[in-house]
Write a structure and sequence with these properties.
- The structure is a single chain.
- The protein is of the alpha+beta class.
- The strands form 7 sheets. It has a 9-stranded antiparallel β-sheet. It has a 7-stranded antiparallel β-sheet with strand order 2-3-4-5-10-15-14. A 6-stranded antiparallel β-sheet has the order 17-25-26-27-33-29, with helices on both faces.
- Strand 11 and strand 12 form a beta hairpin.
- Helix 10 packs parallel to helix 13.
Length: 824
């Protein structure tokens, strides 16, 4: 290719970053919940079916849960705990397993997240032929729209859960006067009653009793209609509108929930006041303000892999992708949509002042969601928030930080009564009542790391924002999590290591043995991170030296990671891995992602060992597990294998009822992740994984395009965030970086890694460790090699340092000579 033409093409690609509309749409109504479209504002959620003669909007409010304030902690006598530990150390795991089940569980396994019910709209005239039907969700505006034509009349329904007014609003319009007639009412599985309050329709519901815990949640749902023309009447528990020009339906929902220990709020006053305030605003102003607030978060990041062909309905696109070649342009189109869809759903299900996104985000159609819709904190809740920092959605983490703070209070009882320890802890599940006891049985539940893992999110946030006042605010949670381990660990006298016991490697055990164990690899990795987070924070904040020393001493006694006889990373202290094990959990891969203990650059043998483990486990898994594996292969700098998992997740499952015919189906027609059933963490893991393929900052430096697959030959991304307080925009072509614009919010040293040589004023070859403390990577112990693992090989990497000033943007470009050679 001509040299001048190459350079011109690169320049054009660099300066031409086009934002493509992100809309998912269908040419038919939803026939099942997994086809409906999600809307939400963090507190209230809706699933829009878009029916013509009968439409349904299934409703959720984030604090409608079963049960009420309670503790599920069962005190464990010290001699019982000691006996369980002794049995495990003696290799008598079956006896220990049975003893745990008999002595650690209270009978309360967590309370369920519950639906409020549904708004049902029945329209007149829809019995005639329908033309031009379209049901869509504009991800950039958070507005769902249904449109169709009947007998020459064009109808439109626009619906959103307002980020400005905290209610659900739907406008129904027609392009001819007097053509809007319908009735609107409720259905609900809650214990409820419906009554008329003038021309408002009120439903009062009650959360269910569950596992002996009395339901105490009260929820009021209130509907009102503003109409232009026509006649509005209220009768037979319905609002009826005849021959109107336009109708705006308002739905307000509120509960008596204040926090996990207080349910004293007046739900009726809350509900009425929000409805009145919303109805006082014109619709045009309401939808504009809502979309503007939403876009302040959503619009920060733009990813372009290909110009979208929006002529294809989304379910048809998903079917086409399922059967397409890997290099089909449709794959890139769906991938970039799913990337933004994950960001959309995180914004819609987690906002400041509210509850953290649960196992289904905020969307659930039943009285008992799968796995109760609880917070499964042995990976799934953490996974929900993997995209938060890197994809520039920092606000969405506030509910998670509040969850951590709440557990730091309720978890003190579990630490003290069950393990005789200080600090706080939680097992593998919690709920809105912040329970921390063991649930579900030993195989799943005797895992004391839920609170510890969550606390690492609070520390990672500091590495992105560098705010010492923030670090001071979360230090009690960091210290409390560390204090639990400092006082709960015991010595494994075979090796003199400090270990947690009893525990499990979620959610299975070595071949032929029960799950209960001592000091499994994931345990040691989480403990290492929690202690190091507390140690780093204590140093930054000037905490007492004797506490710093206690953390250092404990870290020195943790077990090292081990490479087993098959060249794998051992999951347990003993070399007990089964190379044919294809369990969905790859718990010891925590050290590679989300942690930074394993690195292809710093620890190439451990990276090789976990790669062997991943190959042994295989690519096929449940939806959320595939989402995790995308991140793992990205951290191994293998973009093509990461992309293989991207493709695996984009396999259609039309419905749960046909799983047998679609054994590899991992995505419903509405793009919800299929475990199956629906778990939202797969969507969030997908978004985080794509971000990790494009940009990484965990390993002491910012690596640009670390794992871009061959099929994403060119593209651009704007607005991703990295540790150290930097925001990154990039363009690339022929799988090679063209340009990166990096904005420094905090100043300080920026260490850059790239597969291409770069140029920028002030850019120097990197030397020594990165002096920027926000890129600090703790040193791990040298692994024990019981088997052989060859060091993982990586591509040549160019590494630079750039001293930055806060508020300034720096443009890094690939050296032209390299690009010319590359294009040849």
């Amino acid at each position: 290719m001509n040299k001048k033409k190459i350079i011109l093409n690169l320049v054009l690609l660099t300066i031409s970053i086009t934002t493509y509309a992100q809309t998912i749409w269908y040419n038919h109504p939803a026939h099942q919940w997994q086809e409906a479209l999600p809307i939400g504002n963090g507190r209230i959620g809706g699933m829009v079916y878009g029916g013509v003669s009968t439409d349904e909007i299934q409703l959720n409010e984030e604090t409608v849960w079963g049960g009420g304030p309670h503790s599920n902690v069962r005190a464990v006598p010290a001699d019982t705990l000691a006996k369980v530990r002794r049995l495990i150390f003696e290799g008598k795991e079956y006896l220990a397993h049975n003893m745990v089940n008999a002595n650690f569980m209270s009978g309360q396994n967590g309370m369920p997240f519950e639906t409020v019910g549904s708004l049902i709209i029945k329209s007149e005239g829809a019995k005639f032929g329908v033309n031009g039907y379209r049901r869509s969700l504009d991800l950039s505006r958070a507005v769902a729209t249904t449109s169709y034509n009947i007998d020459g009349v064009n109808y439109k329904r626009e619906i959103f859960t307002s980020f400005a007014d905290n209610v659900l609003i739907m406008r129904i319009s027609a392009d001819k006067p007097g053509k809007i007639s319908f009735s609107a009412g409720y259905k609900s599985p809650l214990l409820h009653d419906v009554k008329l309050d003038g021309t408002q329709l009120v439903m009062n519901g009650k959360g269910a009793d569950h596992e002996g815990i009395k339901g105490v949640i009260r929820v009021q749902t209130r509907m009102a209609i503003k109409n232009k023309g026509g006649k509005l009447t209220a009768k037979d528990n319905c609002l009826n509108l005849k021959a109107a020009d336009e109708a705006i339906i308002y739905i307000s929902m509120a509960t008596n929930f204040v926090n996990y220990k207080d349910v004293s709020a007046d739900e009726k006053s809350r509900c009425s006041s929000m409805l009145a305030a919303a109805m006082a605003k014109p619709f045009a102003s309401a939808i504009k303000t809502h979309s503007k607030i939403f876009a302040q978060q959503y619009g920060r990041v733009n990813l372009n892999l290909i110009k979208a062909d929006n002529a294809i309905p989304t379910d048809s696109l998903l079917y086409k992708v399922t059967s397409s070649r890997d290099d089909s342009p449709l794959n890139a189109q769906l991938a970039q949509t799913l990337f933004q869809y994950g960001r959309y759903m995180l914004i819609c299900s987690s906002q400041p002042g509210g509850q953290a996104a649960n196992l289904q985000g905020i969307w659930n159609e039943s009285m008992k969601a799968p796995w109760d819709g609880k917070y499964t904190i042995n990976i799934n809740t953490e996974m929900n928030y993997w995209p938060a920092q890197i994809t520039n959605l920092q606000e969405t983490e506030y509910p998670l930080l509040q969850l951590i703070k709440d557990l730091s209070e309720t978890g003190k009882e579990a630490a003290r009564k069950m393990y005789g320890a200080r600090g706080y802890m939680a097992h593998h599940n919690t709920d809105i009542w912040r329970t921390t006891g063991m649930v579900d049985g030993a195989t799943w539940g005797i895992w004391p790391h839920g609170a510890g893992w969550l606390s690492t999110h609070a520390f990672q946030r500091y590495l992105f924002n560098g705010d010492k006042s923030y670090l001071r605010s979360v230090y009690p949670q960091l210290k409390g999590a560390a204090d639990f381990y400092l006082t709960a660990m015991v010595k494994d006298h075979r090796n003199n290591w400090l270990v947690i016991v009893p525990s499990i490697s979620p959610e299975h055990g070595p071949k032929g043995k029960p799950a209960v164990t001592a000091g499994c690899t994931m345990d040691n990795q989480i403990v290492f991170d929690v202690l190091n987070d507390a140690l780093t924070a204590a140093r930054v904040l000037g905490e007492p030296q004797n506490y710093i020393d206690s953390l250092n001493n404990a870290i020195a006694l943790l077990p090292p990671m081990q490479i087993g006889k098959y060249g794998q990373l051992q999951e347990w202290l003993s070399d007990s891995d089964d190379p044919k094990d294809q369990h969905r959990h790859i718990s010891h891969a925590y050290g590679l992602f989300p942690s930074a203990q394993i690195s292809p650059l710093r620890t190439p043998k451990l990276a090789s060992a976990i790669k062997t483990t991943l190959l042994q486990r295989g690519d096929e898994a449940t939806g959320w597990s595939i989402g995790w594996k995308i991140n793992l292969w990205a951290r191994l700098l293998d973009g093509n294998h990461a992309y293989k998992l991207v493709r695996s997740l984009m396999n259609v499952l039309p419905a749960d009822s046909v799983q047998g015919r679609y054994p590899h189906g991992r995505m419903y027609p509405n793009l919800f992740d299929a475990h199956p059933p629906f778990q939202i963490d797969g969507n969030f893991g997908f978004t985080a994984g794509m971000a990790e393929m494009l940009l990484q900052s965990h390993d002491g430096a910012v690596q640009l395009l670390p794992a871009v697959p061959d099929v994403w030959k060119q593209g651009s991304v704007k607005g991703l965030c990295v540790r150290g307080g930097f925001v990154v925009d990039m363009t690339w072509s022929d799988n090679c970086l063209n340009q990166a614009k990096i904005t420094s919010k905090l100043g300080g040293n920026l260490r850059i890694r790239s597969y291409t040589p770069l140029k920028c004023k002030g850019l120097k070859p990197a030397k020594g460790n990165n002096p920027n403390p926000l890129f600090y990577v703790p040193t791990i112990k040298t692994p024990i090699e019981n088997g052989t693992a060859e060091a993982l090989s990586v591509r040549k990497i160019y590494e630079y340092d750039l001293n930055t000033v806060a508020g300034k943007t720096y443009t890094l470009e690939c050296c032209r000579a390299f690009m010319v050679l590359h294009h040849k």
